[in-house]
Write a structure and sequence with these properties.
Structural class: alpha/beta
Bound molecules: 3-isopropylmalic acid, manganese (II) ion
Radius of gyration: 20 Å
Number of helices: 12
Length: 367
Amino acid sequence: MLGDEDAVRGRETCGGAKPGEGEGVDVGSYTVAVIGGDGIGPEVVAEALKVVDAAGVKLDTTEYDLGASRYVRTGEVLPDAVLDELRQVDAVLLGAVGPAIGSTEVPSGVLERGLLLKMRFELDLYVNLRPFHATPGSIAEGADFAVVRENTEGPYAGEGGQLRRGTPHEVATQGSVNTRHGVERCVRFAFGLAEERERRSVTLVHKTNVLTYAGDLWQRTFDAVATEHPSVSTAYNHVDAACIYFATDARRYDVVVTDNLFGDILTDLAGAVAGGIGLAASANLNPDRTGPSLFEPVHGAAHDIAGTGRANPLAAIRSAAMMLEHLGETDAARRITAAVLAVGDEMASNDEQWTTASVGDAVARRI
Ligand code: IPM
Ligand code: MN
């Protein structure tokens, strides 16, 4: 994922004793803000922390009560003081946030924009890295690829507005914001990632035939960065065609780079064809390390199965492995990832009565 150099840099800046702290400081300890969140979030995060512990990595965790339940109780989403505390930690591990489907207690967008997107924007988590390793018997069996989703721009940026709301002539616009700076740093990350992978290939996914302004910026930026990475082969797919390929031939992909909204949609599709969204992990990365990065499963709070022991913790566990990789705990990260993939394969091929805890235990045993 990240090069050794980055990992070492991360270790220096993110963990370990700071000058003047004196003896007794555990150099292997990282400060991690844990946001269990709502629904199945706390359950899957508990398994992730269990596995990290089994891998021998010491975390200094602080739990933060954020999400739908806090909002309903207090009206607070992400107080500034809490955000300031989050800026200070080495990493953030998040389970899931959101109200139950059909609940009217939290208006749409309040938590999405006020909590998750606010953290992505404020902490400058400009890459959303989502790896997929298809399980045996899944539609995408044999596929092993990663989507690099731009995470701070596009239609998510919040540009736009409404006029004459509630009248027959109302107008709503929601523009897609694409900056050279934002696109380039994301594309650069994708090429850097591809360089570390065996197949060394990057596919740009966009809709350059219709979104001619944004598409042109993405394509030119992609082409320019490609010239700096001659060992990486490149391809381009329109997003609609990419949906077909994801469903029929996902093995063709190594690294996919795309904008925020296309990446959101494509990664749900990727999760579905690669064995289920319960396996899909993600890292919201600040590759420049000007602050902590945030790690979370792609899935939501799934209130309907909360407390039943049916939530699959593998996505959260793999997200925690991505966190360890980012922190420089490369060996533990690799061992956990390998164990997650092995248990995922095993779950796909036997219908043992798995529970959230027994899956966590099975991963912990394999490390
Ligand atoms: C995701 C989620 C979020 C997104 C929502 C909850 C704001 O769907 O992480 O993929 O759209 O990015
Ligand atoms: Mn999504």
